[in-house]
Design a protein that fits this description.
The structure holds two protein chains of two kinds.
Chain A lengths: L3 H9 L30 H28 L19 H9 L2 H32 L5 H12 L3 H13 L21 H5 L6 H12 L4 H8 L4 H12 L1 H17 L2 H6 L8 H9 L6 H34 L3
Chain B lengths: L1 H4 L4 H48 L16 H7 L2 H32 L6 H13 L2 H11 L6 H8 L11 H29 L3 H9 L4 H12 L1 H16 L3 H6 L11 H11 L3 H30 L1
Helix pairs in contact in B: 2-14, 4-8, 4-11, 5-8, 8-11, 9-10, 11-14, 13-14
The chains are: A mainly alpha, B mainly alpha.
Chain lengths: ~325, ~300
């Protein structure tokens, strides 16, 4: 360990014997570009690891404290402490009684599945059409989707509420969409506006564009129908795109809050995030219960991210810089 | 390639090929439309038309339960005399001005650090990205507990550094900055990933060449890495501004706009006007103002970007 620093310097400056040996110190932010040289942490590196560790700790500290708090008794949280006195698993059970969290859970699952399954069909089909079929004006249509991509959701909330409220022949509405409440406070309102999204169309299109058309041509020769070429040949090739889109959509469906808040009024269809927000506003707040349920609400997404990290990051980089 | 070498063949062959595939082409186009149509119709009904509707409503006195009449710019003139709205605008701007540059600066540092050949890179990257994938509502609940004045972690940290306790979200002077901290913490990860992607696009040869020319590491950073990040800066800036203008969940869960309206931001004010006071037209006018400001900031961002290139 003691000899690591000199040997590193010797290697990196070997071609340049006259240069001062500290020209490229080990803490160099660009050192990653240098050929891989096996070396032990030098002071600069150690500092880097320390900084990253402190930063990383700050990022997860709130979650650690959340989990620790979720194991405390209701009396324990009256004063500050890091560690719980014992592990109060019972909190996770009792919290379910304190508010209808099981119902909220079920509702979140319904919304996630109800949105994500159609997204995987509708948005990817559109992405494929824009990338691989000779429809007229597809450049314009692509630009249209890209424009919609930048419309902030907050802008849409008020008019979208009116659209949902005035769906014809639903919820007591007449043919013109008047007189009733439309889809307000129904599953339709939570699901239908999100069964496709410009972001997903765009992500799918980016992926399908990079696929060669040879396979499609071969399948066409074999008499596969045009729709069959998409469903049976191209879609399986685009599996990574499907995973990316599914992950993004599961995350946003699970985490969404403002729309359910606006469009639902009955406990029976409100999702988990709403339940958490309502529970956080009771007085006095039962912190261990709230933290237990927050843990249950966050851990699945953390797990999903850790498992599908590769896809998340590819999707983010794809929709971002290349767009 | 083979066809091109046979000189006389191309003309008839191309004509024949064009006639024959025309049926195929038409079938392909038809399939394309069938596949495209659901998404196209969906986006029109649930995004494009609502986006146009909001502009129309901003010129009416519509309420949720009644279609309104055209009243010109009345909503807008009323807005600028509305102290709550002006406060919301100022809070949103302050929030954006604090969160966006700070988070961007930290994100660049973290991205540069993580772009090196260090051990446990993926692990660190995960740590910084976790706040992004977790629900803002759940995260807000956790921070509400951290900022709890009597037993929260926040005051414990303050007393560790010998500072006096704070009322955090109950103190009108501290509440907004306290939310900014959460905003920075949660938005760091996305920016970091975008910067990492940009860093990976910088050619290693360029960096090597600069080093061989005797550039110091700072020179390499400022002359090679930094300019290489320019397109990422613009994209990150635009998306960050847009998302910080939309901050809602955080405010709703932690402060509800209080104390004394100190954290009433634009998105929250729109929500209040639209769904509590049921003033659709007025809330739409606010939304249009928000949209115009975001567009203007994006335009300014693009201008500065252009100046850098010159």
């Amino acid at each position: 360990m003691t000899t690591s620093t000199p040997s590193t310097v010797a290697v990196t400056t070997a071609q340049d014997p006259g240069a001062p040996s500290r020209r490229r110190p080990p803490g160099d932010p660009l050192a990653g570009r240098a050929p891989r040289v096996r070396r032990l942490p030098s002071p600069g590196r150690a500092l880097l690891y320390l900084a990253l560790s402190v930063g990383g700790f700050l990022m997860v500290a709130p979650f650690l404290w959340m989990v620790l708090t979720s194991f405390k008794t209701l009396n324990e949280v009256n004063t500050f402490s890091w560690l719980p006195q014992g592990v109060e698993w019972q909190n996770y059970v009792d919290a379910l009684d304190a508010a209808p969290f099981l119902t909220y859970f079920r509702n979140s699952l319904i919304v996630v599945v109800g949105q994500t399954v159609p997204v995987l069909v509708i948005a990817t089909a559109a992405g494929y059409a824009l990338a691989q079929t000779p429809i007229r004006g597809r450049g314009t249509i692509l630009n249209y989707f890209i424009m919609l991509l930048v419309v902030p959701f907050q802008v849409l909330i008020v008019p979208l509420f009116l659209v949902v409220r005035h769906v014809p022949l639903a919820g007591g509405n007449d043919v013109l969409g008047m007189g009733g409440t439309g889809w307000v406070n129904t599953w339709w309102a939570l699901i239908i506006p999100f069964v496709s999204a410009p972001l997903h169309v765009f992500l799918a299109r980016q992926f399908f564009v990079s696929l060669p058309s040879d396979l499609a041509d071969a399948a066409r020769m074999d008499g596969v129908s045009e729709i069959g070429i998409f469903t049976r040949i191209m879609a399986p090739l685009a599996a990574p795109a499907f995973v990316t889109i599914a992950l993004f959509n599961v995350e946003s469906a699970w985490n969404g809050f403002i729309w359910p808040l606006v469009v639902t009024s009955s406990q029976e269809i409100r999702p988990l995030q709403f339940g958490l927000a309502a529970f956080a506003q009771t007085d006095p707040v039962q912190w261990p219960f709230l933290m237990a349920m927050s843990a249950v609400a966050t851990l699945p997404m953390i797990l999903l991210f850790v498992l599908g990290q590769r896809y998340f990051i590819a999707g983010l980089a794809n929709s971002g810089i290349k767009g | 390639m083979v066809i091109a070498s046979e000189a006389p063949a191309p003309v008839p062959a191309r004509a024949a090929r064009r006639r024959r595939p025309s049926g195929v082409e038409r079938a392909r186009a038809r399939a394309g439309w069938i596949l495209l149509l659901p998404a196209l119709v969906h986006s029109a009904i649930f995004i494009a038309i609502p986006a146009l509707m909001v502009v129309w409503f901003s010129f009416t006195d519509a309420r949720v339960f009644s279609g309104g009449e055209f009243i010109g710019f009345e909503n807008f003139t009323e807005l600028f005399g509305d102290r709550t709205f002006r406060g919301a605008l100022v809070h949103t701007l302050l929030y954006t001005i604090a969160v966006v540059p700070v988070a961007m600066a930290i994100a660049v540092l973290v991205a540069v650090a993580l772009n090196q050949q260090i051990r446990a890179r993926g692990f660190f990257r995960t740590l910084f990205y976790i706040p992004v994938v977790t629900a803002t509502v759940a995260v807000s609940a956790v921070w509400l507990w951290i900022y709890n004045p009597s037993a929260g972690l926040g005051n414990q940290v303050l007393s560790f550094f010998g500072l006096s306790r704070s009322g955090w979200l109950t103190d009108p002077d501290v509440a907004l900055p306290a939310l900014m901290v959460i905003g920075i913490w949660q938005s760091l990860g996305t920016k970091m990933i975008l910067y990492l992607a940009a860093l990976q696009g910088i050619s290693p040869e360029l960096v090597e060449a600069a080093k061989l020319d005797g550039a110091s590491r700072w020179q390499v950073f400022w002359n090679v890495t930094w300019p290489g990040l320019a397109p990422a800066h613009f994209f990150v800036l635009v998306t960050s501004i847009a998302s910080s203008f939309q901050v809602f969940d955080l405010v709703y869960v932690t402060t509800g706009g209080g104390p004394a309206n100190a954290t009433n931001v634009l998105a929250f004010d729109i929500f209040t006007n639209a769904f509590q006071r049921l003033q659709t037209g007025y809330a739409s006018a606010e939304t249009v103002v928000m949209l115009v400001i975001i567009a203007a900031l994006i335009y300014l961002g693009r201008l500065t970007q252009r100046n850098q290139e010159v």
